[in-house]
Amino acid sequence: MQDRVLAVAMNGVTGRMGYRQHLTRSVLAIRKAGGVELPDGSRVVPEPVLVGRSADKLRRIAEEHGIERWSTDLDSVLSDPGIEVYFDAQITSAREEALRSAISAGKHIYTEKPTASTLSAALELAKLARDAGVRNGVVQDKLFLPGLLKLRRLLDSGFFGRVLSIRGEFGYWVFEGGWQEPQRPSWNYRAEDGGGIVLDMFPHWHYILEQLFAPVRAVTATTATHIARRWAEDGSPYAATAEDAAYAVFELEGGITAQINSSWCVRVDRDELVEFQVDGTEGSAVAGLRDCRIQHRVATPRAVWDPDAPVDQGGYRDQWERVPDNAAFDNGFRAQWEQFISHVCAGTRFPFDLLSGARGLQLAEAGLRSAASGNRVELEEVDLP
Q1: What is the reported pTM?
Q2: Cβ distance 142 to 150 under 8 Å?
Q3: 72 by DSSP, 3-state: which?
Q4: How far apart are CA 103 and CA 84, in angstroms?
Q5: Which sequence ranges form a coiled-coil region, renumbered to this chain (predicted)?
Q6: Four-residue CA torsion sign, 44, 47, 51, 57
Q7: Are 262 and 246 in contact (CB under 8 A)?
Q8: Which listed residue, of 118, 211, 229, 275, carries a Cα 20 to 30 Å from 201's Cα?
Q9: Contact call for residues 233 and 198 (beta carbons, < 8 A)
């Protein structure tokens, strides 16, 4: 069987996420490994075509990694019939128009999220892709993290019994920029540019909750702009117009309650930057990016409230057992890229489509409405007409 080359237009690879996770650690790593093996035994080798606004940055990346083609003209790239897939990791405000153009050109779509600025626009993109007959997918990388893969293993095995609740803690301190360089771009803190932690993180929480547990039916959220003044890439100060923290309760189908704190203004006192504690009738687990710890009902110590007595057995955290890897875990972005390439070339199942991405944006919009009104907001089921 002959290998096939799949040309992929990659827009936004000069940014940190687009370059590190999608280009070098995913597409180029897959290319170096000889491609993706399809169910019939043949292989597909992705060949990136870089797209962006800065010719100097694109040229430098292309020369460093042996990439033959790059362009600052998106329209000319999309008009090339030899390019089958369009990938978008641009700034959020530029994504919707580019995705529309790519769908109109008949390209298969793979994109970062959020897919658009509003739910209605996201649903329209999903409808356009369906009507055009193009395969489409949205990055949902956290499902492929080792810690959450172990959590899925526990769920599939029935370890928890009936799941009662989920508690999530995400975030870290993002430097303001005045005295130390910030770890995130300044547009993240400007609402007019599509910034804000709700729009950034609630779509992640949506697919984690939906894919691992149950659909989200209602949300109650509080947001804050804790740091109102930050400094841009050129050193100039600016007013932060988007929220940098969100504290939310998500009500899931079946009576499960999830509480997730998201903040770029918190100093980390946990093992990993994100952790989810799942409590069930039979057992509990704490899953992070890589690790997962468990405590089954038969090994649960008898906790008694006594502030005058020291904690026995070396502390509560020592009473948990670590879940072994039992498998080799690849980069989460790469794993989903491989699944999407197989979906495009062989029609294999890929549930993370534009409609799924739209539901994530629905949750973000509901969270912002809840924070603005102070009310609980129910989510209606969304589907394509």
Answers
A1: 0.93
A2: no
A3: coil
A4: 11
A5: none
A6: positive
A7: yes
A8: 229
A9: no
